[in-house]
Amino acid sequence: MKVSGLVISLFIGCMFLGAPTQAQKTITLEESIQQALQNHYSIQISRKKEVQALNDNTPGNAGFLPTITGTLTKNYTISGLDQEFFGGLRAPLIQSGVNSNNSAAGVAMAWTLYDGKGMFVLRDRFKELQNLGAKQTESTIENLIAQISSSYYDLIRQNLRVNNFKKGLEISNDRLKLAKDRYEVGQGSKVDYYSAQVDYNEDKALLIAQEQSLLNTKISFNTLLIRDHMQDFNVNPVIELLAKLKLNDIKETALKQNPILISALLSKKISDLDTKNLQSQQKPQIDLIAGYNMSNVYNGAGFGVQKGSSDVLSYGLRATINIFDGYNQKRRIQNAKITSEIAQLQIEDLKNVLSSSIEKAYITYENALNLIQLETENYAIAKQNIDIAFDRFKVGIATSYELREVQRNAVAAETRLIEAKFAAKSAEIELVRLSGNLL
Asked: Structure pTM?
């Protein structure tokens, strides 16, 4: 068991030995976020969608500009003639393989002058869609920042646990050496020596498992940053908290800045504009129309016009209005109003869920802060107990069992302190994300 544990530990340690030298640098949270924002696929996708919304927000797409179309045709015919005339005034006309052709070219323009203000509604709609795209990108960025921050502090947590288990292993190693020396000189029992060996192996196994957990967390973190999964790096093993957050401030800010809630409000605006756009279609539409057409003809037959050309310029106004379409327009307007009502209900639902999420996260946050204070005191006492118990063990006053219990209490106390700090930081990150302040 001891040999296999050493092999596993060496294997874990060697997995990163082949990494480049720069991989050993200490990476900060800010550097991690910058790398992820540059490389992460979800951000790239959101930004491209934002560009699409920007491309759609043009006067032409809203209907402010005229449409101009051009046409060009060229036709060829081959025909045969066999004609007889009344009274014999003319000789019969018999022809075959008569080649004729005609061509035409034209330009037509239509420019909407009035459509019940529909084009203005569409312009506002495209603007809101652009704002929605920007807000959705912001939401994606905030979610990614929160994910990276939580993963970063999880790395710190795993690293602190490794150091905690290492300190426990050092105590077990010192105890094992002392128990072995006592046994070899006849001052200690074989049971104490073997118990110390078993406890040392147990602590070694815990350290190996924790190192493996740290390695897996690093791989997941590298995946978030879209880089080599086995790239090694260090983090500053300190979990720092912000100044105490206030519940009312978080709630108030969330109602103004939470990107998901803002996106829902923008969607409601778009639904209202859809209703106005459909209502504008009930009013007449007036278009300015103009066109220019030119045609040429060549007649291969031996009578009539042999060739000629003509051109026509036309212009005017065209008015159209929907008189009756089976009540479909009315139905579409009613459904658009219902969609707007649904959007408003979704906003209220989001507010309710957002408030609930903030309340729960804040309870977790406060409990973690209280645990930090409690476990800090416990850990300080546990460290003192370790020193006292080990000194007592050296002089033979304390038993191996007593030392082992004190050691376990110290390791457990520091572990609980680490977990409390991580829980507080995770809740803090979630509260800041819900308030829309991560950016």
From this structure: 0.82
